[in-house]
Amino acid sequence: MHPMRRIELIRSTLADGEEGAAEIRAAARLLERTFSSGEVLGAVADPDFPGALVAAAQGCGASEEHAWLTLAAAGPRRARQVMAWRASELVDADQLTAVAGKKGRARRRGFRRLASGRGEAAAAAGAWALLAHLHQGELRRLVRARPVLAVADRRARASRALRPALG
User: What gap in Å lies between CA 28 and CA 56, rounded to an integer?
Assistant: First the structure.
């Protein structure tokens, strides 16, 4: 069966809400047993979203192929939102909160620089690429939801508040 047809079949059975998110996370965990986290996150962050996942699914076993196609069936926005928590675990909390605190072009430039992976592990580069796709509000919710990021965010806000007073 053609992969795009299989994606449509999976999409029709993929649940909404937390049940669907749990299916997506389970597919990602299954893939991380075989592939590196950077490969999985990088494929989900790829601009050619369904094509990259279909290409990754070719030549895999049946369970891995189904997992790749489940991520593709979720769609780019939903898959990236669900995988953002995992991506935030792989990157430095202080760097993430510093970039997430910026707006517009400065934020995009910061994510692009970090995703280029200069001297970083491939997993971190894939995580930065995925996090770059999130909207400002989604990043803010992620930072507030993860305790490690929330603490780093409070430190960054406090240092930004002190900087003008010191200057």
Answer: 13
